Amino acid sequence: MSDLKLNGVTPDGIGKIKLGSADVQKVYSGSTLVWPTGEVNICGYIWTAENSTITDTTSGGTIPIAANATEFLAHHNAAQPVAMYWDFDSNNSERGLLYNQYAARVIQPPTGFLVPSTLTFDQTFFGTCNPSSPNQNRYGANPGNWNSNLNFRDELGNTGLNFNGYGEAVLNSLNGTVLFTRDTTSSYQWTTTRIGTGNGPNVAKVLGINQQGQFRTLILTEDLVNINNRAGYIRFYKLA
After folding, report:
1. Which H or E element spans position 73?
2. pLDDT tens digits, 182-224
3. How many angstroms separate the first and last alpha carbons of the chain?
4. pLDDT digits over 24-62, tens only?
5. Do 98 and 171 reside in the same domain of the chain?
């Protein structure tokens, strides 16, 4: 399928096509979504535009999808890869799967893609790639699953990367529970970067609502503390 072009130009984010004064969110050819596509090009990186639902592993195995907290924690406590849907409900599949860090280490990306490192996130979200930094609204979905605390919404959807406030899961092995939390306020994303000499826990990036001056915008932070008892989402990237 060829790129959608308007006057010879491919739109690079929601807000670039309007119907009257309203932003066009999606364009279909019949029942086929033709824009935005499932990939976006940002500063020389091509990112997947949705959270992963992949269960294949690099060794040819399969990441199990747990049906409840007992199943998830049994795999997690044994340092085995495992995934789950939000609230253990496959009707929430549009959010993507929540993976433990062991799954993030063995997941098989789409052909040519990789799980990003912290450096890949930083090179995409900061510096010359984002003249509005530390405001990272442009990487969030518009309107997205963000609550009213996000009171400055300029640039949402501009890149088409469309991170959503789909939260994270907190794993409590002591009482055998999984708590789905921070819905509408953040997106918890795994990286390949590991603490220490490379054998420590995986670092997570968190795109969430934070105070910036008098406004609250999306800002990318890093979790180095809670990662052993968290489940998060995965995106992929490749060089353009």
Report:
1. helix 69-77
2. 999 999 999 999 998 778 999 999 999 999 888 999 999 999 9
3. 18
4. 766 665 544 455 558 999 999 999 999 999 999 999 999
5. yes
Residue type, 13: G
Structure tokens at 168: 């994270």
Interior CA angle at 13 toward 7 and 14, to 5°? Answer: 100
Q: Cα separation of 149 and 142, whole Å?
A: 15
Q: 218 has which bridge partners? A: 209
Asked if residue 72 lies in contact with residue 66, where contact means CB atoms within 8 angstroms, the answer is yes
d(CA 29, CA 33): 6
Is the same domain home to 32 and 83? no
- Provide the 3-class DSSP secondary structure of residue 52: coil
CB 53 within 8 A of CB 96: yes
Q: Are residues 73 and 177 in the same domain?
A: yes
What is the pTM for the complete model shown? 0.85
Question: How many separate domains does the chain show?
Answer: 2
Are 79 and 20 within one domain?
Answer: no
> How far apart, in whole angstroms, are the C-alpha atoms of residue 125 and residue 132?
10
Contact at 8 Å (CB) between 192 and 59?
no
CA distance 14 to 91: 26
Task: Say which residue the tokens 């992929």 belong to.
Answer: 236
Both 219 and 116 in one domain: the answer is: yes
Taking the CA atoms of 120, 126, 132 and 136 in sequence, report the sign of the dihedral they define.
positive
Full domain range(s) for residue 194: 51-239
